[in-house]
Amino acid sequence: MKRSLQLERIYPHPRALVWSALSDPELLATWLMPNDFVAEIGHEFTFRTDPGPGFDGIVHCKVVDMELERLMRWSWRGGSIDTTVTFRLEDAILYARPATRLVLEHTGFDGLPAVLTSFILGAGWGAMLRKKFPLVLDLVARGKTPEPTGGPKANRRALWWWLSKLFAPILRRSAK
C-alpha cells in the first residue's frame, strides 16, 4: 500500500517572497515548525512539534535538492515514515496579475502506518498552506515581521490532531 500527497496553491506574491518563506528558518518557523534549517544541499536539520502515537515529535530532514526560487527537496523522517517533501515554484497569473504557484509533493508513504500518517500530514499541510503560509506572505509583503506560531500546542485541535487520535491504536500496534 502506497500513497503520495500533492497540494497546489497560487499566491499573489512574487516568487522571491514565496521562496523566502520556504527557505528562511525564522519564516519557516512561523508557518511550519521550529527548526535549525539552512538552505544548502546536504544540510541536515530537524523540525520539532508535539509527540504523538509512535512519534517523538522530531522530524529529521536533509536538503537533498535545490534550485534557487524554483525547487527545494527534503528527506522527511519521523515516527514510522521515511519520505520526501518537494516544493516547486512556478509563475502564475491570479486575477490578471503576476503570482506564484506553489506545488508541494510529499511522497514515499509505504505501508499501512505510513499511509495512515499521510492523512494526518495531508490535513496539516493543507491547513498550513491555506491559512498560515498566506498570512506570513502577506505580513512580509507589508514589511512586518510575523510572530512565531506559539509552539506546537497552538494547533492542538486541528484536523491533523483528531486524525492522529483516530489512528493512534493502529500506529501503536504497528510500532511493536
UniProtKB/TrEMBL annotation:
- The source's domain of life comes to Bacteria
List the Gene3D superfamilies hit by this protein, alphabetically: 3.30.530.20
InterPro entries on file: ASHA1/2-like_C (IPR013538), START-like_dom_sf (IPR023393)
Q: Where is the Activator of Hsp90 ATPase homologue 1/2-like C-terminal domain?
A: 13-130
Q: What family is this? A: Belongs to the AHA1 family.
Which protein is depicted? Answer: SRPBCC domain-containing protein
